[in-house]
């Protein structure tokens, strides 16, 4: 976020010196000084600060602490009616990276009645290691790292990943998906996929109809694009790091007469994190929605 906003002529960044960053009173004083505050804290630290700031303080929280809190607005502007809610909100919870792709693919199908809310979904999500904290970045960039880091690694093996509550709540599903997150040896970028049998769909009976539905749903949104049905890359493969450094998201739909595959590709640090946070800030402050973003 700092990189995206540092060169903006209409933004003044207020920061704390290193020695004051865990001082609650210093934080509160800086919040009082700002028009809007980004929280990039652990959940408990975020909750502590929010509990002590006035209700009219405008907060964008990037932690998982408030994403399913009904008193907060979820920061996915492209969902039906959500942009207007963000515009007038004092409390916005920035969405999680894996959740971004999953919600982008599933929510329109639920809203349009094409997928029943009790359908048992599964989701596979491949991410670069930058989404795993400073310690994971250091591990991957260590020249003496263990050989295990050379290959993709499945995690979240308890099936209780921290993004699951928002993945359920913001898609209006009755249950969370069976979710398989995978981290691999590249810095940033994300590819979220959801397989569906045609028999699971209501009313529509082809992948092409699904692609058209998603295209209509996101029409006019500058940060989300939907490819035509069966639009294959030149080599026939989707690379998860293709949008590294970008703040937009693209959707693909593939399939045959019995199955379809939904895919969302974006940067876990972009539309899946800081890019979405800046987008929310832009909406809240009345700036151009994509100001400072890379598209």
TrEMBL record:
Keyword list, A-Z: Amino-acid biosynthesis, Arginine biosynthesis, Cytoplasm, NADP, Oxidoreductase
GO biological process: L-arginine biosynthetic process
Enzyme nomenclature, EC number: 1.2.1.38
Gene Ontology terms: cellular component: cytoplasm
Residue stretches making up the Semialdehyde dehydrogenase NAD-binding domain: 1-87
Keyword NADP in record: yes
Top-level class of the enzyme under EC nomenclature: oxidoreductase
The keyword NADP appears for this protein: yes
InterPro entries linked: AGPR (IPR050085), AGPR_dimerisation_dom (IPR058924), AGPR_type-2 (IPR010136), NAD(P)-bd_dom_sf (IPR036291), Semialdehyde_DH_NAD-bd (IPR000534)
Molecular-function GO term, any one: N-acetyl-gamma-glutamyl-phosphate reductase activity
CDD domains assigned: AGPR_2_C
Transmembrane segments: none
NCBIfam families on file: argC_other
Protein name in the entry: N-acetyl-gamma-glutamyl-phosphate reductase
Source organism of this protein record: Mannheimia pernigra
Taxonomic lineage of the native organism: Bacteria, Pseudomonadati, Pseudomonadota, Gammaproteobacteria, Pasteurellales
């Amino acid at each position: 976020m700092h990189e995206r906003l540092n060169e903006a002529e209409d933004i003044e960044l207020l920061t704390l010196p290193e020695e004051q960053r865990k001082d609650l009173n210093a934080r509160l004083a800086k919040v009082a000084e700002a028009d809007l505050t980004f929280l990039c804290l652990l959940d408990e630290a975020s909750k502590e600060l929010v509990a002590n700031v006035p209700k009219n303080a405008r907060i964008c929280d990037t932690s998982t602490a408030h994403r399913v809190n009904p008193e907060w607005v979820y920061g996915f502007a492209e969902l039906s009616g959500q942009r207007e809610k963000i515009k007038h909100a004092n409390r916005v919870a920035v969405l999680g990276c894996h959740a971004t792709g999953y919600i982008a693919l599933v929510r329109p199908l639920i809203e349009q009645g094409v997928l029943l809310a009790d359908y048992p979904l599964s989701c596979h999500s491949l991410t670069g290691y930058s989404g795993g904290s400073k310690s994971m970045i250091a591990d991957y960039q260590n020249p003496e790292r263990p050989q295990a880091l050379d290959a993709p690694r499945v995690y979240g093996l308890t099936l209780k990943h921290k993004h699951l509550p928002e993945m359920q709540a913001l898609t209006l599903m009755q249950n969370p998906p069976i979710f398989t997150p995978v981290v691999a040896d590249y810095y940033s970028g994300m590819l979220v996929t959801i397989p569906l049998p045609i028999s699971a769909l209501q009313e529509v009976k082809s992948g092409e109809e699904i692609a058209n539905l998603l295209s209509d749903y996101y029409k006019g949104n500058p940060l989300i694009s939907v490819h035509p049905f069966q639009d294959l890359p030149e080599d026939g493969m989707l690379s998860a790091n293709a949008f590294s450094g970008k703040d937009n998201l693209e959707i693909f739909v593939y399939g045959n007469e019995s199955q379809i595959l939904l895919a969302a590709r974006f940067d876990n640090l972009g539309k899946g994190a800081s890019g979405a946070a800046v987008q929310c800030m832009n909406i809240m402050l009345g700036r151009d929605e994509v100001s400072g973003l890379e598209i």
